Amino acid sequence: MHLNMGGRDVAILSRHFAVTSSQSVNGVVSGMFQHTVTSSPSFTTNQILKMKFTAAIATAILASVAVAAPQRGLEARLTARGTSKGSRPLQAVARPASTKNQTNVEYSSNWSGAVLVEPPSAAATYTAVTGTFTVPEPTGNSGGSQAASAWVGIDGDTYGNAILQTGVDFTVTDGEASFDAWYEWYPDYAYDFSGIDISAGDEIVAIVESYTSTTGIAIIENKSTGQKVSKELSSSSSLGGQNAEWIVEDFEENGSLVNLVDFGTVTFTGAVAKAAGGESVGLTDATIIEIEENGQVVTDVTIDSDSEVTITYE
């Protein structure tokens, strides 16, 4: 006999048995025993041996499923992401020979967007960041895979020990686009949310908030579908609350930067950071970050207002 059961089936089966066990504790089993005593059924030796054999086979099947079940679909993707994908702190690069005639601009191999590089005061460190963006329609090459990620976060620029962040990946593989919402507390890897669907054109609200330097929450809301997911996190790597950012990133997979996809344009609106004490901080004094590849600047960032920044692939 072959059972084609995946990890999710095992989890459902396990939950079923857990519920059955819980019900038993609440009197179901005792009721069965009472019924047995009352009716006093009798079994032949062959019947008893057959029941024991059947129970042993069932136990062996469940054990083999739990140990050897292949991972499929979302579960496999979650595991793969948890062991190979993630953001990195800003990787600064030298100013290229040809640049825009702008002040307050820095260059990076992996980040593009706007960063508040210091808090309002030593006591008023950043505790929350929010931003809203429309998921772009990325354009990839004919072969292979290209990707990028739009996110909001705390720390990672001047303070690189930890980053609390959440956002959406957009990937094109052999011409087909896919999207994933995720959360991360760097230096741990990123993990995908389940229970939310993302498509090009969806309006996404991304929020991170730190409760303490080692605990916090990541929230993604899809305004277009009404779906909302969140994850409370804790880490041994402490946030400093020194930076707040709104970024499109060339993220890392298996130790290397992915091939940056042409993501078109990503505009963060409602871009606001909160500092300890409740002060709201906008983008007026933010630093622009551009991605440079092989000596060429491949993004264009404009701060359109105190609460809006636009990142365009060039």
From TrEMBL:
Chain intervals for the UniProt region annotation (Disordered): 81-101
Organism lineage: Eukaryota, Fungi, Dikarya, Ascomycota, Pezizomycotina
InterPro entries: ConA-like_dom_sf, Peptidase_G1, Peptidase_G1_sf
GO molecular function: glutamic-type endopeptidase activity
Organism field: Aspergillus niger
Catalytic machinery residues: 249 (proton acceptor)
Top-level taxon of the source organism: Eukaryota
Gene Ontology terms describing biological process: proteolysis
Name of the featured protein: Aspergillopepsin-2
